[in-house]
From TrEMBL:
The active site is at residue 66. It comes from Neohortaea acidophila. Pathway: Nucleotide-sugar biosynthesis; UDP-N-acetyl-alpha-D-glucosamine biosynthesis; N-acetyl-alpha-D-glucosamine 1-phosphate from alpha-D-glucosamine 6-phosphate (route I): step 2/2. It catalyses: N-acetyl-alpha-D-glucosamine 1-phosphate = N-acetyl-D-glucosamine 6-phosphate. GO terms for molecular function: metal ion binding; phosphoacetylglucosamine mutase activity. Mg(2+) binds at residues 66, 285, 287, 289. It is an enzyme of class 5 (isomerase). Residues 482-537 form the Alpha-D-phosphohexomutase C-terminal domain. It holds the Pfam family PGM_PMM_IV. The keyword Cell wall biogenesis/degradation applies. Binds 1 Mg(2+) ion per subunit. This is Phosphoacetylglucosamine mutase. GO terms for biological process: carbohydrate metabolic process; cell wall organization; UDP-N-acetylglucosamine biosynthetic process.
Length: 540
């Protein structure tokens, strides 16, 4: 009768009458919000199925379109440990999203049920969900509840949250009664966990000056304000956190001329910027899972401290702590990057820090999975999404080692606090902000010293809109750095790149737009522009 209930409910949420196929992509489903009601409805069904498949563990659903325009929205599913949805269920989601009538949905649901091997009468299903500040969020929640109810899930609506807060709650819920609870199952518990470990990780370090955070006029603003209430006051901690772009009551202001994506892609300061030379600024994106830093030098000359910089800063700090704690031989740090990482950052990781570096395809789930294989895996995309994962082996060493000196004890204490200050479920702007501030304080770095750790290669990112991006495929295992098709295109690119000193360029199909992206870097900045243009011409 679940099937019947689904058919009935689907009559109120007809699929948008468009020919295009919807696809569960790297960021779930994302599109204009008026196309989404049916999609959100079926995602409720998919999450319910997933929960049943994992014996009633809790599954999460986040309604957000991150850095995209306020007229867009999206939906994605969070798996039991706070990670991205298991692959086979992505296919189920895509399949159900492209069924055109309630009757068809019913039969497709029945066949999926069979294929997934879920008896119709199995355990209860549990789902929790949240949304960002977009105006369409509340309407979509209605469709979501209809899907969940038809499919028979028990659910909790957590209202407005950042994406990483929802990931936290999923993981906390599923580990609550186990041996390693992730944290209290509440928004409050999230703040308490971060605040406590921020104080512990700071130890006696003295933060330098203040940081101003551009919250993209999104959900990060009210949530950062909440977090600040749990932190020691600036007079005590020595750190002042200022907030700009917090106008969530103005929907059209979301991500408009501000936020991490704007600053990163435009290479300029956001709306509302009023910093002086060398003032430390950071930007969140619209759902607060990305953060980048930046500042102006005199001139003003804009300087970016992006995900690569946060990764190298973090890896170097953790590497030093392991040394001091006497654990450097037993616990290895790996840095996981994508093809977009600036070549200078990779060289610095390998030659400067003498740490392992590894590459994966674009998209958080690929980085996350690679990081899971490391002792300590530091992963960041250049665009500011990232976190650090501590393996059970590393965690055991960090918590069970007997310090041989006060210095070793101090290093161990900081490492212990870091394992809980860092949101190991997913990249998290709030957590990464506190982490970065802790490291800068310990190192005694201003933005100037941070930038001076290495010099970025001049780089450029281009985009060409194409009719069929699927004709652009990359060689498996190349981390998207080599094209397999169209035929001969990689040869042409190699030929162009060979003419430039330290040139590197790659082309890959976007996972989120009908376009291919072209990245290039070279020793000289005039060379990069020229090279990337030539590579773009091979596509047009
Ligand atoms: C998605 C990914 C992001 C990636 C971006 C690349 C997640 C949660 N998000 O937004 O990590 O950087 O896609 O977009 O995985 P592109 O394929 O259009 O270049
Ligand atoms: Zn985001």
């Amino acid at each position: 009768e679940t099937e019947k209930a689904i058919v009935e409910a689907a009559k109120h949420y007809p699929r948008a009458n468009v020919a295009e196929d919807f696809q569960y992509g790297t960021a779930g489903f994302r599109m204009k919000d008026d196309l989404l009601d049916y999609i959100v409805f079926i995602v409720g069904i998919v999450a319910t199925l997933r929960s049943r498949k994992v014996q009633g563990q809790t599954i999460g659903i986040m309604i957000t379109a991150s850095h995209n325009k306020y007229q867009d929205n999206g939906v994605k599913v969070v798996d039991t440990q706070g990670e991205m949805l298991e692959q086979s269920f992505e296919h189920v989601a895509t399949q159900l999203a492209n069924v055109h009538t309630p009757q068809d949905l019913g039969t497709t649901y029945a066949s999926v049920l069979k294929k997934l091997n879920i008896p119709a009468t199995t355990k209860k299903a549990h789902v929790i969900f949240a949304r960002d500040t977009r105006p369409s969020g509340l309407r979509l929640v209605k469709a979501l509840k209809a899907g969940l109810e038809a499919a028979g899930a028990e659910y909790i609506d957590y209202g407005v949250l950042t994406t990483p807060q929802l990931h936290y709650l999923v993981k906390a819920t599923n580990t609550e009664s186990g041996r390693n609870p992730f944290g209290e199952v509440s928004e409050e518990g999230y703040y308490k966990k971060l605040a406590k470990n921020f104080v512990a990780a700071m130890e006696d370090a003295k933060p330098i000056g203040s940081v101003t955070v551009d919250c993209a006029n999104g959900v990060g603003a009210p949530k950062l304000k909440q977090l600040l209430k749990h932190l020691p006051p600036p007079e005590k901690s020595g750190l002042r956190i200022r907030i700009v772009n917090d106008q969530i009551e103005k929907p059209e202001a979301l991500n408009e001329g501000c936020g991490a994506d704007f600053v990163k892609t435009q290479q300029t300061t956001p709306a509302g910027f009023n910093g002086k030379a060398y003032d430390r600024w950071a930007s969140f994106d619209g759902d607060a899972d990305r953060i980048i830093y930046y500042f102006n030098e005199e001139g003003p000359v804009f300087r970016m401290l992006d995900g690569d910089r946060i990764a190298t800063l973090t890896a170097s700090f953790i590497g030093e702590l392991l040394q001091k704690a006497g654990l450097a031989e037993k616990v290895k740090v790996s840095v996981i990057q994508t093809a977009y990482a600036n070549g200078a950052s990779t060289r610095y990781i390998e030659q400067g820090l003498k740490l392992k570096s590894e590459f994966t395809d674009t998209g958080v789930k690929h980085l996350h999975h690679a990081a899971l294989r490391a002792d300590i895996g530091v992963y960041f995309e250049a665009n500011g999404h990232g976190t650090v994962l501590f393996s059970p082996h590393a965690t055991k060493k960090i918590f069970l080692s007997e310090p041989q000196s006060p210095a070793q004890l101090e290093a161990l204490n900081i490492l212990r606090a870091l394992t809980d200050l860092i949101n190991q479920a997913v990249g998290d702007a709030l957590s990464d902000l506190l982490l970065t501030e802790v490291i800068l304080a310990h190192k005694g770095f201003t933005v100037k010293e941070w930038l001076a750790t290495y010099t970025d290669m001049p780089s450029r990112l281009g985009k060409v809109n194409v009719l069929d991006r699927r004709s652009y495929t990359t060689v498996p295992g190349s981390a998207e750095r080599k094209l397999a098709s169209p035929q001969y295109m990689q040869e042409k690119i190699d030929e162009i790149v060979a003419k430039y000193k330290d040139g590197r360029s790659f082309v890959r199909a976007s996972g989120t737009e009908d376009a291919v992206r072209i990245y290039g870097e070279a020793a000289e900045s005039f060379d990069v522009d020229n090279m990337v243009e030539k590579v773009m011409e091979t596509i047009m």
